[in-house]
Design goal:
single chain, mainly alpha, two-stranded antiparallel ribbon, 39 helices
């Protein structure tokens, strides 16, 4: 900046400028001139003075807007501070308890607030429900196993403003643009600052590892792919190759280092406002859809569906955080953590250590809810373990659909707790699972129900799903994750889980819609219904908005189904009076009411059909760094245990929160229903493996008829069925010891490898070959599918085991008869069964 310009500005503001301020003004003017050069065709014909004046005028308007935004953010921060402070005062003896409940769902019904976790899920699933055609276009064919490249390219072309000639892609592109624009506006209403960019097409994905490999190649490729019209100098002339190379080299440095190049020594990182997220200049512009696809293939790590869903997931998370904690959630949380710890320690200094632990627990919970977990220390190590865990899902859970029948116990119990007609839930479940009822399933999807399975999430089975903030991909890892997702799909487990979730959610929406028609206020409801809704954070304001919505009529499923879409269809004119009374806007009232509705329904759906949430993940993974041996081994230890942890944390906590004899009633019903269904799951698993059912009356070990099988059924009902095997033997039927089993798949694999060699001295001969075959089978995707398991065992794996270790099958049959008192209806080694399963064996009939 010239001296006379500096002097003019100094006189205008009445003080001297610092060097950073001078540099900032210069940078702002240059940026504005480049931006104006892209949009003004006559820019080059203007004089240098005119160009500078226009850039300065725009800069002045920006400064005014920024000051107004600062004032708005201060007001929003104060309002958020007051809300949080007021909420924490509900827990005067444990103020940090309020923060804990604000962050994540608590099942005891005593929170009185919709958690940030629940709001995030509601905003995300509501958004996904309005872009189902996007998912259809990108998922591909054959259960999504193969990406539909033509469909992907057509969608990318439409998103980049090109005509693909594919009607489905046009519809999908419009859906995605509409949803992202609605999310952008909602984010900005909460204090965000993401401007509308005409040329923004879709999110981009750059793998730090792939980008960092070769700077020259990355820059050279992007020069070929670049939209040169977007790279202008201040005078409006296009950058030459040397200038663009320099520009892209700086961009490469940022991507290759993960932004480390921008760190200033001595400054604390990570304190930027969440509301600023997304407002950074998006400086890499591709000339067409083909260039974008080529860049993604070469330097990205997510497919198109993951990119789009990942964008929605991040936007939903950011919106929920700034709406609840204000424009700077990190600082707000830190303040209240300090305040809560101070109040607690001053009240009872002897509990300071306990308070510190509670604080750390909340910090770990916030990492899960906000997605602020640090990147892995070693991406390669984290990627390797991700691959291993996904492979475990693909190879070991092919028969998990049989165990999932225990969901029916928690389904019925949660429906009853919510005042829902239980038999109607089961009837709707049949309807949602009926292949001929595609219309019902689509209606439920459009209401935001059962979408995790639609997008291929593995969250329920101990692996990260699509679009997660922690996802690390490699080609092998991607294959294993895809294999895991498709095995779950092929087994029918995804369909069963999604169908059950949709049935429960639809029935609950119908129940709420019916209640909102009949009762003018929450206070007028049945006391149990009123207490439950208030405990979930529903307010009289939300109820008033719900009553203004016109429920949907889903023939057969329900005729008063209240959905988020029905709330958003309320004319703004109907909400003006209520909005004026509360000093807000009709749109904000609808946002809040829709999020409360879907968040409440999804919370209860995840009680009925359990999926681990932030609270369970923080317990298992909190405080341990990814990409380290300790962190990855701990994650592997917890694999396949998250369901059991969630069962105990949610249902036991809810049961203990009941009043009087309600505790015993709730827990008794839970135990009885899941134990009976667990017993059924055990027997179905035995038959699927080619064995006759277990004798439920056997009393050899415990001396009480049925007790041993009853305990095993109880464990199975809580997703701990493997440990029930040790009631019958010192090792499981897969040959694992108790220590090997409790240590998770990785401990079991280490034990299996250490015991590959059989003892020749005991007359068994070498079992190395047979054990190797068994080990290989346990890591072969789809080898354990429940409907093909018996056939693949007998036609392939049993033959290989006996070939490499003669006598292996004979010893296996002897062990089954001696230790587990079982016979085979399909004898190991036989290519076809000799008889049907002996169902009478379940009660001791031989």
């Amino acid at each position: 900046m010239r001296a006379e310009c500096i002097q003019a500005v100094t006189q205008a503001i009445g003080r001297s400028l610092t060097q950073p301020e001078i540099q900032g003004i210069e940078d702002r003017l240059r940026r504005n001139m480049r931006q104006l050069a892209q949009t003004d065709p006559a820019w080059q014909s203007k004089t240098a003075v005119d160009r500078l004046n226009e850039a300065a005028t725009k800069a002045a308007k920006e400064l005014v807007d920024e000051q107004q935004l600062k004032k708005k953010r201060v007001a929003l921060t104060i309002m958020a501070h007051d809300r949080i402070d007021s909420y924490m005062k509900r827990f005067p003896d444990q103020p940090l308890e309020g923060l804990d409940r604000l962050l994540a769902f608590s099942s005891d019904g005593k929170s009185g607030i919709l958690s940030i976790e629940s709001a995030t899920r509601a905003i995300r699933d509501d958004s996904l429900s309005r872009m189902l055609d996007v998912i259809d276009v990108t998922k591909g064919k054959f259960m999504g196993l193969f990406q539909d490249e033509a469909g992907n390219l057509a969608l990318v072309r439409e998103l980049h403003g090109e005509d693909s000639g594919v009607p489905e892609a046009k519809v999908a592109a419009k859906q995605f643009k509409d949803v992202t624009e609605q999310l952008r506006q909602r984010f900005n209403r909460a204090g965000g600052d993401v401007g509308f960019l005409d040329d923004w097409a879709m999110p981009r994905d750059h793998s730090q590892v792939r980008v960092a490999k070769d700077q020259a190649k990355w820059v050279g490729d992007h020069i070929q792919w670049a939209n040169r019209a977007k790279y202008m100098k201040e005078d409006g002339s296009p950058m030459n190759d040397a200038e663009l190379t320099d520009f892209l080299s700086h961009a490469w440095q940022t991507l290759a280092t993960g932004g480390v190049n921008k760190l200033e020594p001595g400054n604390v990182a990570g304190n930027g406002m969440r509301a600023n997220r997304g407002s950074e200049s998006r400086q890499i512009h591709y000339k067409d859809a083909e260039s974008f696809i080529a860049a993604q293939k070469a330097y990205g790590e997510r497919n198109l569906l993951e990119l789009l869903i990942g964008h929605i997931d991040r936007a939903a998370r950011d919106i929920s955080l700034v709406e609840n904690l204000g424009p700077n959630p990190n600082n707000q949380l830190r303040y209240f953590l300090d305040e809560g710890q101070k109040v607690t320690d001053m009240a009872d200094p002897k509990k300071s250590e306990k308070t510190s632990k509670q604080r750390r627990k909340i910090e770990h919970l916030y990492e899960e809810v906000a997605g602020t977990r640090e990147p892995p220390a070693s991406p390669a190590l984290a990627n390797g373990f991700d691959t291993y865990r996904a492979l475990n899902v693909a190879s070991r859970l092919g028969s998990a659909v049989l165990t999932s029948i225990t969901d029916q116990g928690t389904l019925g119990l949660t429906a009853a707790m919510n005042g829902m007609p239980v038999m109607k839930v089961f009837a709707n479940e049949i309807r949602m699972l009926n292949p001929a009822s595609a219309g019902d399933r689509r209606a439920a999807q459009r209401a935001g129900l059962g979408l995790n399975q639609l997008i291929g999430s593995l969250n329920r089975w101990g692996a990260d799903g699509l679009g997660t903030t922690e996802q690390i991909s490699g080609r092998v890892s991607k294959f294993s994750q895809t294999a895991a997702s498709k095995v779950m799909q092929a087994s029918g487990l995804n369909a069963l889980t999604a169908g059950t979730q949709r049935a429960f959610g639809a029935t609950m929406m119908d129940t709420i819609g019916d209640m909102s028609r009949r009762h003018p206020t929450i206070a007028a409801l049945d006391p149990a219904d009123s207490k439950r809704l208030l405990g979930q954070g529903v307010t009289e304001t939300d109820w008033s908005v719900w009553r203004l919505a016109q429920p949907e009529d889903w023939r057969g499923v329900g005729d008063t189904v209240l959905t988020a879409n029905s709330i958003y269809r309320i004319p703004n004119a109907d909400l003006v009076t209520l909005a004026q009374q509360l000093s807000t806007t009709p749109q904000r009232l609808k946002d809040q009411a829709a999020t409360k509705l879907l968040g409440t329904v999804l919370d209860e759906t995840n009680m009925a059909i359990i999926e681990p949430g932030a609270r369970e993940k923080a317990l298992m993974h909190g405080g341990v760094e990814r990409g380290t041996w300790k962190g990855e081994l701990q994650r592997s230890f917890w694999q396949f245990k998250s369901f059991s942890i969630a069962m105990m944390m949610r249902h036991i906590r809810r049961g203990m929160a009941q009043e009087g004899w309600g505790k015993a009633g709730y827990i008794g019903t839970l135990v009885a229903s899941t134990t009976v269904l667990g017993g059924m799951a055990i027997q179905l698993g035995e038959i699927a493996a080619g064995r006759d059912p277990k004798d439920i009356t056997d009393d050899e070990k415990l001396g009480v008829p049925g007790l041993r099988f009853g305990i095993a059924s109880f464990l199975k009902g809580g997703a701990l069925g493997l440990y029930g095997d040790f009631l019958f033997s010192d090792t499981s039927q897969g040959g694992q010891s108790f220590i090997g089993a409790i240590g998770g798949p990785i401990a079991g694999d280490i034990e299996a490898l250490s015991k590959l060699k059989g003892s020749a001295a005991d007359g068994k001969g070498s079992q190395v070959g047979g054990n190797l075959v068994r080990f290989a089978k346990s890591h072969t995707p789809a080898a354990n599918l429940w409907y093909t398991r018996a056939a693949t065992d007998h036609l392939i794996f049993n033959q290989l085991q006996d070939y490499f270790s003669p006598g292996y099958l004979r010893r296996m049959k002897q062990r089954a008869r001696k230790e587990f008192k079982q016979s085979y209806w399909w004898e190991p080694g036989d290519t076809t069964p000799d008889r049907a399963p002996n169902l009478g064996a379940a009660v001791g009939v031989k």
